[in-house]
Write the structure tokens for this entry.
Amino acid sequence: MRLKRYVSISCSIILIMLTGIFRLARAQQQTRPNIIYIMSDDHASKAISAYDSKLIQTPNIDRLANEGMLFTNANVTNSLCAPSRAVMLTGKYSNINGLRDNRDTFNGDQMSWIKLLHQDGYYTSIIGKWHLKTVPQGFDYWDILVGQGHYYNPYFIKNGDTTQVQGYVTDLIMDKALNRLKNRDKSKPFAMLIHNKAPHRNWMPDSTHMEMFDNKNIPLPETFFDDYKTRSAAAKEQDMEVQNMFLSNDLKIQPKYFDKETGTGGAPANFDAVKNWEGAYNRMTPHQKKIWDAHYDSVGQSFQKRNLKGEALAYWKYERYMKDYLRCIASVDDNVGRLLDYLDQAGLTKNTIVVYTSDQGFFLGEHGYFDKRFMYEPSLKTPLIVRYPKEIKPGSTSNQLVMNLDFAPTFVDEAGLSVPGDMQGRSLQSIFKGNVMNWRKSVYYHYYEYPYGWHKVKKHYGIKTERYKLIHFYNDIDAWELYDLKNDPHELNNLYDIPAYKTVADSLKRQLKQLQIQYQDTSFDASLTKEK
Ligand SMILES: [Ca+2]
């Protein structure tokens, strides 16, 4: 009798303990954070009012900053679309993940943070621009743009099937993301990547923003008419200048309003700008064209009448470029607002990490440039805002040297998993919580896309510390540049040949060598060879 009771009590205790363990496990499962990673394409920090309110107001992206953390010194490892995406997924530099420039194909068989979360029970999805050529792996659901994607009536590939969808790309991407969030497997935490095409070239606004900025003068950056004095040939020999933008493809002037193109557009020799523009224009439906023409025909007529030359033409191009670029961002911001409203309504705000970033920065006329690629600040730095109420104090700012290399380890860490030893970035969790002890003091950069492709920016690598930046351009040039970022934030004075800075340069060279060893980037050929 006694034994029976003893067994019965013991069983009850074990049952209670097991129930408790199961409950705890389920609670942990439910409290693992959801992750929404929004990445726009070519969105410079200066075009987000939380960073700088001179160009545009972005109240919805600013809301994320007000409720989360704004990073003022987030850097990319290789300022170009596809390489940046490969780094984000793998947490590894281009030399390790194998995608060095836009010609390369991503090896999807390698490990990524999304695969690790998927294997551990996350519902994973990606909507929007993919640009890695191979089929996305590690996603329960993928609905991606074909190639670079189009602003109007783009093609999407949904889990393998291609269809053209009528509408404006930024709205369509968010429509699809919201639809997927509503129809996801709700028993699991989720990780969703929302990748905008906007504000990538050729900057075609939607109908509701075409007149925005019509009566506004866009301030010209103080370095717009740069003479590249003191800098190496690299700064001068690029083909990145706003004054060389295409009238048709970039600035949407119909060919009937000009005799010939007034620039190279930074394009390879066989690129036909007019044909490309006509292709983009003819994607629109008759109704969309009518709205488009009602605005842009008068722009073309005005251009034809004015017969602009020299600096006046360069300034006109800058304003045309910037207005359309900013209008595309206005759509992005509206759609971020739709997402944040949904998260509130669905009760997901508290337990969801929301990231807003870009695949790199972008030149908005600094040094006379557009595009990216250079290790100079406007393209090296990328906007980064993270909201996660459980860890991040609202309205906080971090000026630490963080990188796009850090996304993969951060998401793995936040999901409660061990960060693989071969990921080269670091989890940002300690920074989210306000602890910046032992954070990195320098970042390493390496750009490869030369001489093929666009814009003729020479291959280069370099180191940036909190104070200085040292860059080495190589391949068919052997040129070093050194900047004091504190006294020369616009990077106009190359100090490399100044004797007083030799000690600084030598020290940076030693640190650069260490970073190349740390990131296993020592086997490339930095000699004066013309081939890759
Ligand atoms: Ca990009």
